[in-house]
Amino acid sequence: MEAVNILHRGLYFPSGRLDMREETSLIVLHHTGGSVGEDPDAAEIDAAHRWLGWAGIGYHFLIRRDGTVEAGRPMLSVGAHVEGANHESVGVALCGNFCEDIPTSMQLESCAMLLAILSSTFGFEPDAERIVGHRDLSATACPGDALYEQIPELIGKAVWYQMNA
Ligand SMILES: [Zn+2]
Question: What is the CATH T-level fold of the domain 23-164, as seen in this structure?
Fold first, then answer.
């Protein structure tokens, strides 16, 4: 399978602040929100989430406007991205506000590849039961209509990447 290059920004998580997940049954998609065109890197989001008193960035992966995938919180740790489902899910955020704007084609392509890899890693099929938007689990507009409506296409591409890449 094709590998996605993941950019690490050297985020530091003090030992003892993160719990490890015992199961992973969901991948939850988010947008970062904010102003149109905003493209924060993982270090900026990490700083903002630490300011809230969290252990660090709440998402496990961040996908920048140019399609770069950045590492967030360690993949096997409990995230801070979806109330009530953090203990069973991986959080993937795409930079942008998709209530107002649309994801770039590079973001969607990287996201599909990442979904293929994560589904394989955690041993499930990429489908609508496993790959959901934040709004499917909480009362939020996240990940915005323009990303939410792409989820079926992302799942289709993830299946393709699993079979062909
Ligand atoms: Zn969200």
Answer: Lysozyme-like (3.40.80)
